[in-house]
Amino acid sequence: MARMLGAQMFFETLLDQGVDVVFGLPGGYVLKVYDVMTDYNDRIKHVLARHEQAATHMADGYARASGKPGVVLCTSGPAATNTVTGIATAQMDSSPIVIFTGQVPTQYLGSDAFQEADHIGITMPCTKHNYLVRKTADLPRIMKEAFHIATTGRPSPVLVDMPKDVLIGEDELNIPKDVYLRGYKPNLKGNKAQIKRAVNLISKAKKPLIFGGGGIILADATSELYEFVQRLQIPVCLTLMGLGAYPANDPLYVNFLGMHGSYAANMSVHDSDLVIAIGARFDDRATGGNFEKFAPNAEIIHIDIDPSTIDKNIHVDCPIVGDAKIILQQLIDALPADIDTDRKEWLSQIKEWDEKYPLTYKQNSDKIQTTYVIDTLSKITKGDAIIVSDVGQHQMWLAQFYKFQKPRSWINSGGLGTMGFGFPAAMGAKFAKPDELVIAVCGDGSFQMNFQELATAVENNMDLKIIVLNNQHHGMVRQWQTMFFKSNYSSSKFQVLPDFVKLAESFGAKGLKASRPEELEATLKEGLNTSGVVLMEIIVDPEEMVYPMIQPGGAMNEMIIEPVDVA
Amino acid sequence: MRHTISILVDNESGVLSRIAGLFSARGFNIQSLNVAPTQESNTSRITLVTSGDDFIIQQIIKRFNNMVNVIKVRDLTEIKRVEREMALIKVNTTKETRAEVLRIADIFRAKVVDISPRTYTLELTGDLDKVTAFIELLTQYGVKEIARTGTVSMARENKKPKRGD
Which of A26, A371, A433, A457 is deepest in the core (most CB within 10 A)? Predict the structure, then answer.
């Protein structure tokens, strides 16, 4: 076995794990790692972010686009605390990232040394697990465990804290072949008795419905879902995180469900007699938050890899814990040949709801409606792009009007709702999928939270498209103020905004702008067809609102359909 | 409802704060907590007593199971178990009360482990009710200090003896 520095072991283990890109920033206690890095630059690319939060979102975007773990490297103290928003974002949406932080030498731990923070304590609630490495020799094993934990079971962030003396210390490199953790063995296969019960419930159901979440995509179970749905002719609704798990152009696809989901989707959940939830966690935005009134006439089958999501918000009649891909296959195999798949009545009911209140918009003023932008973007790209959203109204309109056709083509901060996520996450997605068209769709508010990464994008000669929907407001805040605070627009309007075109140009990127509806399509087409980093600023109507809407804490059949309904 | 939860964990730094963190995240209080190594030096047993909404406690137990450092979790509340706690109680005494205190200690099978001219320090082992009753009785003499271990608990072995055992 070869003797080497901890810093070298770090890269040897990354190579062993198949890591080819690391997002990070150098600093005090990881300088040895950055020193050694030049020997590995031919095999592992380092993307120099301008802020550790953005580096973490990049790793997250990389993980979501590829399914492979995203890797962050940074120093201690402020660098580590900067990653926390990114870690919490990844945790809420079950994204596998591994964060490596430098730390003060072990003999200084807890002494308030320069740039010291308790990374383990701070990140304990927002990681699946975290490690403080105490000996150089332990580093490869801990790294291997960290990747294993991050990517198996319910994917999640894992942090590895590396004191300086561990990194500059020398020992023999020993990367263990296997990971053995006696307290960690995620269950993958569904319990046979539960599969049987589920099949029985499905056989009896008249109004079954798929309530599909992000877990389907994480489990790579979309083709199994498609087969299951086609075989049984069960209509499909998807949560915000589940978009792309089932093709939006398929006749059995109802729509996006939840607070801003379609009328038909929410009504069908409410009216269903069997909700089959797959890789979804029934959060308040997906269910309306009134857990007692959720699908009152339905039995509920809940398929999830994480036992702690079962019965958390909604009482479940038939839980099946395990991997969605495996369980869907088990269900398909267990279906009797003569199972009744005649859903004429149920499907026509759903169709009726959809025709009553379809998702629709009007572009009839001289101000560009954001919905019109999204619809145009959907038509131009035909779903053949990776759309990375920021957080706010535009995120909801993307979910409503963009027709996602394939998994991992929709990336957004669903659980934590992190503004500033979209642009760096899009960069990470582009590093994962260099041959695909990657489009960051941001609001003016959220883009301002991480626009410094324009430098990183240009520096890496990225081919990345950014749409900044500028309504001069925190749009969703404004909408809530309109609806629930008597239009008291407290601190939601920006008095000063940058000239986004000039801002892009100052970084060496291309800037385009559309202010009138007739300019929109040409601007989008020009922007998408121009190579390099292109920012398209679209001036949009600040008064447009997202409908329908379940009032916070409401039931799924209690929707505000149109502005006239607002009290 | 009161729950007694037994958790086998890796015996390493930070594990206790991971466990405690799940309670504070839900705004729950831990009534008593006992941690000590088991027969294997790399494993500790945590016995934790808490009370609260059963539904949320079930959630917390599931989250314990998800933890990498947690090897096994058991909610002992609904099953047959042995539960014990040890308490050290320093009680004030006078010439008049010394004999009386000793008698009470005797009845409870407590031991005198330290004596000073004006105090006895008594050691008592028992379940929660016994310890509570003992302390209540001693209050009239003036209890100076109490140190309690918190509950430790173990499921009863319910296998019937085999022939020849």
Answer: A457
- State the catalytic residue, choosing from A12, A52, A453, A544: A52
- A397 plus A452 within the same structural domain: yes
Hey, what are A342's tokens?
């005649």
| Domain extent at residue A338 | 192-356
Please state whether beta strands A299-304 and A274-278 pair in parallel, antiparallel, or not at all (unpaired).
Answer: parallel
Q: Where is pLDDT greater, at A103 or B29?
A: A103
User: How far, in whole angstroms, is CA A256 from its chain's centroid?
Assistant: 15
Mean pLDDT over A31-37 rounds to: 98
Q: Which pLDDT belongs to residue B27?
A: 81
| Cβ A276 vs Cβ A238: under 8 Å | no
> Given an 8 Å threshold on Cβ–Cβ distance, is B9 in contact with A183?
yes
Residue that is last in its domain, among A356, A380, A395: A356
Q: Pick the catalytic residue from A4, A45, A115, A526.
A: A115
Q: What are the distances in angstroms from CA B56 to CA A311, A317, B26, B151?
A: 10, 18, 8, 21
CB contact under 8 A, B62 and A181: no
- Is the same domain home to A436 and A333? no
Question: Is residue B157 exposed (0-12), middle (13-18) or buried (19+ Cβ within 10 Å)?
Answer: exposed
Are A124 and B55 inside 8 Å of each other by CB? no
For chain B, the domains span 2-75, 82-153
What is the identity of the amino acid at A477?
Answer: V
Q: Tell me which of A114, A192, A525, A562 is the catalytic residue.
A: A114
A164 in catalytic set:
yes
User: How do the residues of chain A divide into helix, strand and coil, expressed in percent and rounded to 5?
Assistant: 40, 20, 40
CATH number reported for the structural domain that contains residue A92 in this entry? 3.40.50.970
Q: Tell which of A356, A386, A410 closes a domain.
A: A356
Of the candidates A182, A184, A193, A229, the residue with the CA atom closest to the CA atom of residue A208: A229
* Mean pLDDT, rounded, of chain A: 96
Q: Smallest Cα–Cα separation from A141: which of A111, A116, A166, A164?
A: A166
Q: What is the mean pLDDT of residues B77-100?
A: 95
The confidence score (pLDDT) of residue B55 equals 84
What are the Cα distances from residue A403, in Å, to A180, A218, A257, A425?
Answer: 43, 20, 14, 20
Q: Is the pLDDT of residue A110 over 70?
A: yes
Separation in Å, CA B45 to CA A128, A313, A355, B72, B73 = 22, 30, 60, 9, 10
A213 & A266 share domain: yes
A192 labelled catalytic: no
Q: Is residue A254 part of a domain?
A: yes
Q: Helix axis angle, B98-107 relative to B128-138, nearest 10°?
A: 170
Structure tokens at A355: 């025709």
A160 and A26 in a common domain: yes
CATH of domain B82-153: 3.30.70.1150
pLDDT at A65: 98
Q: Kindly report the pTM of this predicted structure.
A: 0.95
A389 and A339 in a common domain: no
Residue type, A16: D
A337 and A438: one domain? no
Shared-domain flag, residues A466 and A533: yes
Do A483 and A338 lie in a common domain?
Answer: no
In a domain, A425, yes or no: yes
Q: Name the band, by pLDDT with cuts 50, 70 and 90, for residue A425.
A: very high
Q: Which residue of B has its CA nearest to A118?
A: B14
Q: Across residues A3-31, what is the average pLDDT?
A: 97
Q: Is residue A89 part of a domain?
A: yes
ipTM summary value: 0.86
> Looking at residue A308, what DSSP letter applies?
G
For residue A364, tell me if it sits in a domain.
no
Nearest chain A residue to B42 by CA: give it.
A182
Number of domains making up chain A: 3
pLDDT computed for residue A388 by the predictor? 98
Q: What is the b/e burial string over A210-238, where b = at least 16 CB atoms within 10 angstroms of the residue's CB?
A: bbbbbbbbbbebbebbbebbeebbbbbbb
The reply to whether B17 touches chain A by the CB within 8 Å rule is yes
Find where tokens 């020799």 sit.
Answer: A137
